[in-house]
Amino acid sequence: MPEPLSPQQQATFFRRWHTLENGGLTTHAAMDVIVRHPAMRGIERPARALRDMGLEGKTPSQAMERLGKTFSGLHIGMIRAAEQSGSLPQALGLLAGFAERELELRRSVQWATFHMKVTILVFVLVALFVRAELWYLNILKWIALGALAFWGFLWVLRRSREGLDIIETAALRLPLFAKGNRLAATAKFLWGLSMLYKSGIGLSSAIELSADSCGNADLARRIRKAAPSVLTGRSLADCLKETGALDPETLGVVAVSEVSGDLDTSLDRLAEHYDRISKIELDKAYTLFVWMIWIIVAVLIGIWILLVHAGRMGALFSPINLP
């Protein structure tokens, strides 16, 4: 079963395709160039499939659909709408920009979590190798072992769809990280919804497809509940409000932009605002968490040094050493 393209592969693939289409190449010729000169490993496989299926009379969206999980519903929906409207280069540019934004967000989070992981590793090593007989230091060693076990448990949990759902649900509820994670997921949803709306896709289908792009299964499930309600003719803001997935500020902007007629522009601006704020919030959360761990490590090392010094002083003034 083909694996989904990573955000970096998506950004590279759609940006190359966009550049070649803008240069006047047909889709078949563009895919042939990507196959012969892939800018990144892994993107030649879908390019080859699109090129070969194109020779069989398949449209790009039909070929992408037959590649299973390689492309998301949002990708396929955007390309299908662009084929019908004759705006393929514009759609490819939007998809490339969307992937590049997600890649930038992931990199900023990975950089922040890298420091956290290194700090946790230092804490674990210090806690395990400090030698002391006091019971509370032994408790810290058990905490360190528990942290290692929990880390391994999370790694295993992420291997399954059900486990990933549990982690993503928790990400929206953890006090320290909930705000940043929610803003990041909301930003991706709004970007996806704006892109699909610009492409002329109906709001109900746009909600379904953009919900999957938010990167959080729990939030996506709640957002999807608005899709059937939109078909009844109710406003988008009212339908989204019933799901409880979005905050009042977002709903207010959606309601105003529906009346003013600039929904796509307002969604883009709000998504960019949430993207910036989410990076700040997540950076603050990870920094605070790292400082908490370093304080624990510093206290642990300080107790260890005091114990060693006290032991030497006790040996110096023991009755055996007195004149």
Query: What is the distance, rounded to the nearest whole angstrom, between the alpha carbons of the first and last residues?
Result: 82 Å
Estimate percent helicity: over 70%
Q: What does the largest sheet look like?
A: none
The number of E-state strands comes to: 0
Q: What's the number of domains?
A: 2
Question: Can I get a quick summary?
Answer:
The chain has helices spanning 7-22, 27-36, 44-55, 60-65, 73-85, 88-129, 135-157, 161-171, 178-198, 203-212, 217-224, 226-230, 236-243, 248-260, 263-316.
Structure, explained:
The chain has 323 residues and is mainly α. The protein has 15 helices and no strands. The chain has helices at 7-22, 27-36, 44-55, 60-65, 73-85, 88-129, 135-157, 161-171, 178-198, 203-212, 217-224, 226-230, 236-243, 248-260, 263-316. Helix 2 packs antiparallel against helix 3 (44-55), helix 9 (178-198) crosses helix 10 and helix 9 packs antiparallel against helix 15 (263-316). The model has no long low-confidence stretch (mean pLDDT 81).
List keywords for this structure.
single chain; 323 residues; mainly alpha; Receptor-associated Protein; 2 domains; 15 helices
SSE layout and pairings?
Layout: H1 7-22, H2 27-36, H3 44-55, H4 60-65, H5 73-85, H6 88-129, H7 135-157, H8 161-171, H9 178-198, H10 203-212, H11 217-224, H12 226-230, H13 236-243, H14 248-260, H15 263-316
Helix pairs in contact: 1-2, 1-6, 2-3, 5-6, 6-7, 6-9, 6-15, 9-10, 9-15, 10-11, 13-14, 14-15
